[in-house]
Task: structure prediction
Amino acid sequence: MKVPFSTLARLHEDLREEMADAFSRVYDSGMFIRSKECSAFEEEFAAYCGARYALGVASGLDALVVALKALDVGPGDDVVLPANTFIATALAVSAVGANVVLADPDEKTCNMTARGFLSAITENTKVVIPVHLYGQPAEIEEIAKEAATRGVLVVEDCAQAHGALCGGKHVGTFGAIGCFSFYPGKNLGALGDGGAVITDSEELADRMRRIANYGSSIRYHHEEKGINSRLDELQAAFLRVKLRHLDACNEARSLIAVRYLENIRNPLVALPCVEPGRDHVWHIFAIHCVERDALRDHLRQRGIETVCHYPVTIADQGAYASDGRLSPTPLARRLADTELSLPLYFGMTDEEIDYVIDALNAFNGGGGNRAA
Result:
């Protein structure tokens, strides 16, 4: 049997008619940039998240850049972020000329904690970017509280956590700005690139809209040096369709995750830890194994595709090799060396799920395999 790490084919087959209608609607309108579909999606996404405002942008990275620019983050400012996140979080900080400061994550959840944030804070810290990694909310309530007492702004990276809740409240609404990616593989994914920012501040919403539109709020009049980062009409129309199905898709992912959690029984494998009061949306089912490479090869031989998220920490990336300010992150490195992401996608069959479980349970280290 072949089990892919992920596939959109089954979801897209179910949505074929709705997506075709969305395409036709945009095609027939003749309007392809910032028109009715984008405005409607922004209203619907803001309402879904429980925020006052949403703005569609071109990518998740751009969402972070626009957010940081709107908060006047720049040279001389320090921005704290988790050491084990995807590099886009750090690149956004670098793009505005600020300094990346890394915080070690929690070993069990792999997420940033208030303690980790406080250990990394400096006298120049202006912003903290908690990342809701793998789909589980970080310790966001505590981080936001500690940040507020120290005058530090919170920008949430929600690229992997569409629909995730903490204490019944949507991620992205705990800080000044929430940032999302709509890369196709996300829980809420476009058929191309896309992203969004959400906020409750009218002032920030207006400024982010201006920044993302060449620094202009009136055509051909540019109040500041902005960028071109806009969610196009076609992607907005597709996202409107998928947003209607997001909760159901997240529930389907959760059911698969529960099957894994209840049935994978291998002492060599550490399963994900879900904290009470946090609704995990299972963008990624991340396990850890000291013999990760041997396990991955074991699964590959059985036709099971896996991915490592992420095999190289920010501090160890070539892009940051010359940055002497980045401190060593031993825990992040250990997590990077042991993490393995299992197949999990909408439409995954019982047979596929059981096949993955049996293969995991049969792994007996590099020296051999258990009887399935």
The chain has twelve helices and 14 strands. The first strand starts at residue 53 and ends at 57. The mean pLDDT is 97. Residues 233-263 form the longest helix (31 residues).
